[in-house]
User: Fold this.
Amino acid sequence: MIVTIKDKDVGINNMTTLLRKLSFIFDYQNKNIPNCEVNIESLKLDPVSALVIYKVFYFAFKHECLEFPKANLDHIFNIFSDYGIEKMMKKIINQEDADLLYKKIKPKIIEGFFIAPHAINRDSFKNKIDLEVKYTQYIANYYKTICPKLVQYFETCICEIASNFLYHALEDNNSILMARGNEKMIEIVCVDNSNGIITSLDPGNKDHKKVMMKAFERGVSSKKNNNHCGTGLWFIKQIAEKLNGTLRVYSEDMSYICKGKKVFVKNTPYWKGSIFYLKLYVTDSTEIDNFFNNFNKTNDLGLISE
Amino acid sequence: MEMNLSKYGKIISTDDTSNAILKDIEKFLESNGTISINAIGVVISTKSARLIFGYLYKKLTKLDFNKQIHFKNASTSFMFAINEGILTELQN
Assistant:
């Protein structure tokens, strides 16, 4: 079998195509299937395609899916170097421990965009300096003169996404949170191979579309008895809506796509775990500030904020 | 008395940090009776907000919480997380 990834297969708008080409790997767990070749012909990868392909390689090697697979590695390492994760790819392919490299990934500026990867695992979260100084503060500093009023919302999204992946993806210790942005927008991506949203929220329910839609409602969580609020996805969706953004979540056999106020929930090729993509635009903050200010006033808690 | 929340980090999202903050607020309240939480430049996850302020609101009740705990320099999204954290804790 030869899997070829071309330009038309990558990019956030082609995610279903990419998943269709790669989701076979989840059926090959511990099967050591011979004669498989992966060729990535695409000259550039967007952050979400890069992380999806990265996780497929990781899954294939970790779970011994393929026997002596072939791939155009020089080109793959080259295109992954844009995101600073080529050395980790090499380690994974050579089946070496990449844990130390996870601690060393750091943001950089390339072709007018900042690219900021960050490891999502217990160690990186325990080390607050890593998350704050190397990561969130880097992004906050980048936007503080461009859109100072929006920085809190960008940081909130990173905080909620990272927290969600950390606490819901307990058996996947090798995920990466990736942010890319310029003066007009920011994209935040995270991909994992843990339990997906359907399995976490309502594993017995056969109506996956209904479960997926419910996951984005306010107050819905699989871990509500464990101090979670079930607000994270709803919160991020509101921020995306108010900043003319896009939120795309692919999990197991479903996708949830929110563009402005429109929502599309569809069946998609299977992905073990979740793929999270958020794009927010730098825009006027009046609408989003008003929305959350009003929201805070509509309850009876009576909190005092000066 | 004022507690500068940023000394615990600009991003508050882990259980360890949340528990440390909760412990310190309770100590502050025991010795001073009131506390002003200065949240300048701080982002908090809804989970941490529930752990710290949801717990305190339930323990102190509305009247005493609002008499004893005030927020200062908090962003809109910070206050949203606090409101949401408390509301969720009260429902459970």
About this structure: The longest helix of chain A spans residues 151-168.
